């Protein structure tokens, strides 16, 4: 719940604060901004972190999670008479080869077009799972199934994590917020969709729409998890298997095929985007700078494709070994991401916030962050959640960079140059759309808390009053922001 729903407010911040600056500068990759703000050395450092995170983490995990889902939905082991591990291995290569063809030979346009089609199918397919799960619980009677589902395990509807839970509620205001800001605002594989917008207005529309979809994910992902617990039982050895087993159990045969296609599309969407980003970063930020000659775009594209092919193969080889991770797939993903995400966001954050922090401060800061985080995760058990550690390191690193900037500032201050490559007129409904997304986000936490469904007997008048108050605040707030922005413009 925390990882998904908090993305709503973060995407509003990205649309409002980050995207206008990116498009005004005309950057095509985040390392481009790093170079403009600091220097080429810092850019190369950040590019290397991006590429390492893609190769050792994002791409293998995407392939593994997709292979788990597909092998279970299609019962690969039973059909071919092979072991679970062999089934995962087969599906990893099938997904990897198909995804690599899309990304390497189609480029970002193919990724964008396929994303649009896959996105619609995924939302429709995702909504079918809870619908048929309710019917399954109620033996064909939807209302009876809904009533039974809500009343059976009220404790499962509490999204307010305690200090002993995998995601304490307090992390939403520390490291979790920073991780989401990195992912949605500076991760090349994600923000490249915004960087490729034909105008600021179109980019902001897309980001706010994405925010609306993210705050609705409890109904697509989290609620089915609770349904899986009720239908399949609580004694499940591998939590990664719950969702595909639920799909196979509740959906009719023809709809299983449709859902598998939608799921395959979602897997390919992530894999394609990350692989395309890796190829782009290598071609523009690694190969081009070290080349001794002025290369045409066609040559850069060719080198990017070769690199993408190598990365795809390495990812397919490494994906199978994710199944041996000691914790669940999602927790493993986020813990390993800590080596890359917040350190990169810290550099971008300080780059925009300050004007005279020098390049060597950025290099020292990111080296300190990555090294210290590694120590706390591998050698020294601090007793703190890794997201709290990320937040503490973010503060220390930012403060250290600021002090260095005061002691030995840059000679010339950094100024954002408007290259006038796209229309940067903002979307007129930005604040209203953002306010609606935040309203839904907060309402989700009211509903999925002891005030709402987690209370014995379900929601009451206090819940409804709380949601109404949230709605009033989120309606008035955007109007005040619009008025303030208009007066400032005048």
UniProtKB/TrEMBL annotation:
Gene Ontology MF, one: D-glucose:sodium symporter activity
Keyword annotations: Membrane, Transmembrane, Transmembrane helix
Membrane-crossing residue ranges in chain numbering: 6-24, 45-64, 84-105, 117-137, 167-185, 206-232, 252-285, 306-326, 332-353, 360-380, 386-404, 429-448, 460-481
Recorded topology in the membrane: Multi-pass membrane protein
Major location category of this protein: membrane
Leader peptide range in chain numbering: none
GO-annotated cellular components: plasma membrane
Keyword Transmembrane helix in annotation: yes
Localization of this protein: Membrane
Family statement: Belongs to the sodium:solute symporter (SSF) (TC 2.A.21) family.
Entry-linked NCBIfam families: PRK10484.1, sss
Protein name stated in the entry: Solute:Na+ symporter, SSS family
Natural source organism: Alkalibacterium gilvum
Native organism taxonomy: Bacteria, Bacillati, Bacillota, Bacilli, Lactobacillales
């Amino acid at each position: 719940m925390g990882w998904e729903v908090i993305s709503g407010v973060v995407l509003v911040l990205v649309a409002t604060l980050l995207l206008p600056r990116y498009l005004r500068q005309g950057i095509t990759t985040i390392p481009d901004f790093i170079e403009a703000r600091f220097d080429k050395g810092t850019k190369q450092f950040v590019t290397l972190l991006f590429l390492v995170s893609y190769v050792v983490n994002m791409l293998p995990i995407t392939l593994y999670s997709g292979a788990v889902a597909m092998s279970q939905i299609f019962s690969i082991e039973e059909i071919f008479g092979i072991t679970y591990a062999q089934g995962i291995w087969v599906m990893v290569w099938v997904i990897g080869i198909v995804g690599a063809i899309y990304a390497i030979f189609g480029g970002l346009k193919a990724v964008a077009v396929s994303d649009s089609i896959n996105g619609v199918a995924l939302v429709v397919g995702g909504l079918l799972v809870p619908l048929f799960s309710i019917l399954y619980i109620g033996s064909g009677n939807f209302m009876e199934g809904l009533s039974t589902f809500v009343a059976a395990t009220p404790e499962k509807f509490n999204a307010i994590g305690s200090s002993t839970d995998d995601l304490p509620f307090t992390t939403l205001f520390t490291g979790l917020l920073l991780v989401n800001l990195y992912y949605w605002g500076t991760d090349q594989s994600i923000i490249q969709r915004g960087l490729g917008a034909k105008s600021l207005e179109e980019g902001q529309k897309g980001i706010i729409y994405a925010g609306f979809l993210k705050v609705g994910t409890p109904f697509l992902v989290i609620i089915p998890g609770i349904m899986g617990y009720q239908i399949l039982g609580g004694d499940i050895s591998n939590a990664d298997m719950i969702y595909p087993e639920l799909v196979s159990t509740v959906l009719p045969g023809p709809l299983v095929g449709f859902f598998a296609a939608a799921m395959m599309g979602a897997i390919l969407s992530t894999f394609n985007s990350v692989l395309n980003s890796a190829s782009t970063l290598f071609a523009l930020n690694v190969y081009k700078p070290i080349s001794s000659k002025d290369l045409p775009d066609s040559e850069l594209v060719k080198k990017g494709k070769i690199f993408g092919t190598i990365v795809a193969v390495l990812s397919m080889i490494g994906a199978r070994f994710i199944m041996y991770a000691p914790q669940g797939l999602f927790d493993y993903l986020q813990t390993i991401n800590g080596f890359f995400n917040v350190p990169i966001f810290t550099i971008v954050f300080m780059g925009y916030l300050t004007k005279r922090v020098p390049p060597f401060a950025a290099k020292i800061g990111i080296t300190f962050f990555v090294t210290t985080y590694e120590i706390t995760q591998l050698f020294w058990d601090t007793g703190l959640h890794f997201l709290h550690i990320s937040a503490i390191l973010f503060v220390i690193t930012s403060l250290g960079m600021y002090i260095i900037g005061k002691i030995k500032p840059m000679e010339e201050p950094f100024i954002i140059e408007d290259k006038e490559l796209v229309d940067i007129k903002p979307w007129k409904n930005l604040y209203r759309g953002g306010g609606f997304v935040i309203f839904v986000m907060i309402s989700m936490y009211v509903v999925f808390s002891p005030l709402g469904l987690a209370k014995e007997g379900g929601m009451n008048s206090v819940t409804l009053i709380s949601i109404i108050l949230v709605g009033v605040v989120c309606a008035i707030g955007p109007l005040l922001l619009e008025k303030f922005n208009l007066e400032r413009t005048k």
